[in-house]
Amino acid sequence: MAHHADNTDDIITVTCGAVTSPSDVNNTSVPDLFLLLESEPMFIAASLLYKVGLVVVFVAGIVGNVMTLVIQHHIAGDSDTGLSVFISSLAVADSAMLAYSCASWYLLALNLLDPHDQRDSVCKIAYFLVYSLGLMPTWILVAMTLQRAASILFPHRVKAAWTARKAKVTVCVIVLASLALNSHMLYGRKLQTLPGGEQQCGYVSEEYRHVFEDVWPSVDSVLGIFLPFALLIGANVVLVNRVRRSVEEAKQSLATGSSRQQLQTREQKASNMTVTLICVSLAFLLLTLPLALYYVAKRKAGISIQPGATEYVREMADNAFAEAVCNILYLSNNAINFYIYILTGSRYREALKGMLGCRAAQCE
């Protein structure tokens, strides 16, 4: 699910603090609209949210993803597993998404420049990258969750068949499919010069504009949010049911003493795994769904031009703040996984404590 708003010929579009307009609204000049918009409290709040929120999300996300790679290497050692490959690939994909989106949005928030409007090649590649990078971590997460669900349903078969090599192939397929799916943007987007001399990243034709603005957002929402979440819910239902059945069977068969200790260990591992999966899926839903719903509502409702420019600008400021909140939440999905692993996974906590303990001992 990508998250860039485009300028149109008839309305002002607010994106991360940048506003452009090719025409006047109700005989109000563009500079006056700028001044009106920049004085709106909701627009000021949106700009501040981008300037502060992007830095917080970027730092927390990059640190978390790097720690995920380090701890995963510490846990797996030299023997990679399919799960290890997925977790590491997810951390890399999340970091790429954070690096690109936070950098471009921060430039917009500071009113420095819009990277999309600088060169024709940048216009094409920028949209191609942001949509592609948005899909990669989502489907790596889906593949990882489905693999873990299958490993519980068919433990011996999956363990023997699903090797680290096959996991790497799956990640490569996801990357290539994401790039291929969005490759039409390399043709369809182009730099255009408006009547006033201003440049913006536009379209090669009105037909492609219709596809990109009216059709593709729905396709992107289905592939980037709704379908992945449905698959994640299905996998989690299977996992929870299987874990419950496994624990119930263990309670019936295990006796006292050392067997009771084995039962407690088994229940703890099952609980940790289930909680981690549920939390990752719930975080994905809570953090990505608002942006999808926002754009669906925005496309259906549109923006009504009020009789006066003041009311119109206030409406734009409200939309800017709502979009800022949704965008920050969306990017947080690429920054939060490590902290979920630490909170819900005992192996990650133990590995982190071990690493910190070793460093503390070395320092002493």
TrEMBL record:
Pfam families: 7tm_1. It is found in: Membrane. Gene3D superfamilies: Rhodopsin 7-helix transmembrane proteins. Keywords: Membrane, Transmembrane, Transmembrane helix. SUPFAM superfamilies: Family A G protein-coupled receptor-like. The chain crosses the membrane at residues 48-71, 83-108, 128-146, 167-187, 222-241, 275-297. It comes from the Eukaryota. PANTHER family: CNMAMIDE RECEPTOR-RELATED, FMRFAMIDE RECEPTOR-RELATED. This is G-protein coupled receptors family 1 profile domain-containing protein. It comes from Littorina saxatilis.
